[in-house]
């Protein structure tokens, strides 16, 4: 009887989280998939992109899943900060610090292309910093709530 | 605290939307920008060979293109700068196009040994080209390339043949000097005059002559200059001084031995 109740509690607690995590994984993976498909014709110019994206997607999804499973604890926000940090590093690394330079050989001539994406990178980093800030504030709020509960 | 979290959440969402909308429209706009070059035209202007490259930019995207700057540096095979040119267009608003031309000019009306070298010898010029443009006033974009262009000398293989003499009288003789060259230039013909002065071994002036020249591109010239000289001054060898006055260049004296 007790075992049946425990199983019910476990199912009630974790099944929604598993479903939520699975949905989030699918939703998160879709942009990576489409971005990779979009980049594929230019793969030879960005040889570092594909393996890096796979590693980043894996790390991001792990943090996401762990964050979902630890929701309701302080670890949720820690993983949120870690996820935002990983995203920021990924953007900085993928965009090569904002300056993308390519050398395209056409017949006997090499054409050098340089795009300065520092403005976009700054916006992306700002978003990540806002994400970190939000998680930190949420963590403080969570801890403060816990302390208040204890005091009561 | 709750309001701060909510504000940060909204700020993050708004910024994400801005980034996604800007990135998507920027990519779409960039794909709708057409930059093309027309057939280069060469013409002559007061001693300069001007190579004019038509440049057409059609901006049918959502954002303005600004500070378009095209620069071309022409260098010889030793790396010496022959010409530096640039074309600047301050603004190409969205849904508009610009039709301009980039002019590269090389001074041939110069009396230096370097210019003489280009007039008499084929060579290869190195071209450093770069095109910079600022997209949406936020994303600078640059394309650059190095290439080479062959240079055809207008007076290639200029040579003086065997000098011959025609007896006129006891005091004077007619000197005949055969001259030949090939105009390898794809850009211009050699039209104008050639003045020839002849000197003996003691650097004494013997006589001079002026001949007309009309040698189109990729054709050769074979002719002779004739002049009457004082018999007493003839030494059998010496120097011939050439002065060229053409629509493209003025040069001289080009000194060549004879005899």
Key features of this structure:
heterodimer, A: 152 residues, mainly alpha, two-stranded antiparallel ribbon, 4 helices, 74% helix, 11% strand, elongated, B: 259 residues, mainly beta, Immunoglobulin-like, 3 domains, 4-stranded antiparallel beta sheet, 2 helices, 15% helix
Q: What is the rounded Rg of chain B?
A: 30 Å
The profile of the biggest β sheet of chain B is: 4 strands, antiparallel
CATH topology of the largest domain in chain B: Immunoglobulin-like
Q: What's the number of helices of chain B? A: 2
* Domain unit count of chain A: 1
Helix content of chain A: over 70%
Distance between the termini of chain A: 34 Å
Number of strands of chain A: 2
Structural class by SSE content of chain A: mainly alpha
Helix count of chain A, per DSSP?
4
User: What string, H for helix and E for strand, traces the elements of chain A in order?
Assistant: HHHEEH
Main interface by residue count = A-B, 25 and 24 residues
Strand content of chain A: 5-15%
Structural class of chain B: mainly beta
List SSEs of chain B in N-to-C order: HEEEEEEHEEEEEEEEEE
CATH-defined superfamily of the largest domain in chain B: Immunoglobulins
Give the overall shape of chain A, derived from the CA principal axes: elongated
Average pLDDT figure of chain A: 83
Assign a percent range to the helix content of chain B: 10-25%
Specify the CATH architecture of the largest domain in chain B.
Answer: Sandwich
């Amino acid at each position: 009887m007790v075992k049946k109740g425990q199983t019910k509690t476990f199912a009630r607690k974790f099944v929604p989280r598993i479903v939520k995590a699975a949905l989030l994984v699918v939703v998160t993976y879709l942009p990576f998939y489409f971005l990779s498909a979009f980049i594929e014709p230019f793969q030879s110019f960005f040889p570092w992109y594909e393996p890096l994206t796979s590693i980043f997607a894996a790390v991001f999804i792990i943090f996401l899943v762990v964050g979902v499973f630890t929701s309701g604890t302080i670890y949720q926000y820690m993983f949120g900060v870690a996820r935002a940090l990983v995203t920021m590093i990924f953007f900085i690394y993928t965009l090569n610090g904002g300056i993308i330079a390519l050398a395209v050989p056409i017949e006997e001539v090499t054409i050098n292309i340089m795009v300065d994406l520092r403005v976009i990178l700054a916006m992306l980093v700002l978003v990540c910093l806002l994400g970190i800030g939000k998680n930190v504030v949420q963590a403080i709020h969570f801890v403060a709530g816990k302390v208040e509960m204890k005091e009561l | 605290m709750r309001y701060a979290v909510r504000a940060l959440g909204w700020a993050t969402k708004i910024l994400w939307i801005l980034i996604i909308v800007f990135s998507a429209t920027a990519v779409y706009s960039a794909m709708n920008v057409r930059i093309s070059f027309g057939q280069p035209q060469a013409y002559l202007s007061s001693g300069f060979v001007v190579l004019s490259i038509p440049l057409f930019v059609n901006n049918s995207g959502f954002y303005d293109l600004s500070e378009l700057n095209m620069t071309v540096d022409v260098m010889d095979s030793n790396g010496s700068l022959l010409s530096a040119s640039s074309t600047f267009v301050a603004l190409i608003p969205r849904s508009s196009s610009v039709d301009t031309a980039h002019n590269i000019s090389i001074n041939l009306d110069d009396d230096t040994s370097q210019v003489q070298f280009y007039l008499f010898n084929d060579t290869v010029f190195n071209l450093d080209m770069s095109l910079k443009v600022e997209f949406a006033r936020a994303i600078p974009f640059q394309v650059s390339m190095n290439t080479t262009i062959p240079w055809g000398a207008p007076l290639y293989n200029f040579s003086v043949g065997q000098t011959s003499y025609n007896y006129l009288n006891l005091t004077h003789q007619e000197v005949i000097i055969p001259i030949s060259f090939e105009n390898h230039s794809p850009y211009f013909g050699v039209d104008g005059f050639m003045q020839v002065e002849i000197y003996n071994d003691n650097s004494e002036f013997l006589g001079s002559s002026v001949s007309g020249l009309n040698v189109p591109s990729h054709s050769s010239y074979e002719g002779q200059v004739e002049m009457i000289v004082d018999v007493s001054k003839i030494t059998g060898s010496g120097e011939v001084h050439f002065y060229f006055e053409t629509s493209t260049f003025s040069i001289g004296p080009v000194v060549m031995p004879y005899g």
